[in-house]
Model the fold of this input.
Amino acid sequence: MGNKEKTNKKRFFYPPEFEMVLDNLNKNGNFTARFMINTGARINEVRGFIKNPIFDNQRNNITLTETKVRARLKEKRPSPRTIPISKFFFRELKEELPTHRVLSTNAFNIQLRRICKNLKINNSEEFSSHNIRKTFATWMLSLGIDGFKLAQHLGHTPNELAKNYATNDVFNHQDKQIMRSIFKDLPERISGINWDTLL
Done:
């Protein structure tokens, strides 16, 4: 069982796979997945935000208050994390928040695995919400986002990012176009990257 969980955390979605998954999730599953891919947040952090939404309207940032305790940094309680999100998703989030709910981790994982199996995505039985966080980090790194800034965004140290998320760039031009269509201006907001340098 332990080995399966480790394998599970290494798998990310290719952009066409993720688009198909989004199309097949129910309303609340789709909202949950879009929140995670647009922020890199853990599903528990997403649920915490929904209970206590903190928006910074001037900067298009949100604050995640229920984050993971980082034992390696000797934290006794979780530190809130303020992160930028794309101005497009910021607007969507404010509009959709009153009419959507975030699924429980178990309900989301069951739905995600069923859809991955139906779509014949390899290792479908191993998928969980964490694979979307892995996907977020992998895509961002492949778009050239600075590892230190990405680690801060995810609430990791740079060493943890390199150990758990770094991967070879296996994406083609079409994959990166899909990533950009999902992320909109978020990579630029995290790293100050000019879109023209990515084309």
Q: What stands out?
A: The first helix runs from residue 2 to 10. The CA atoms of residues 20 and 184 lie 19 Å apart.
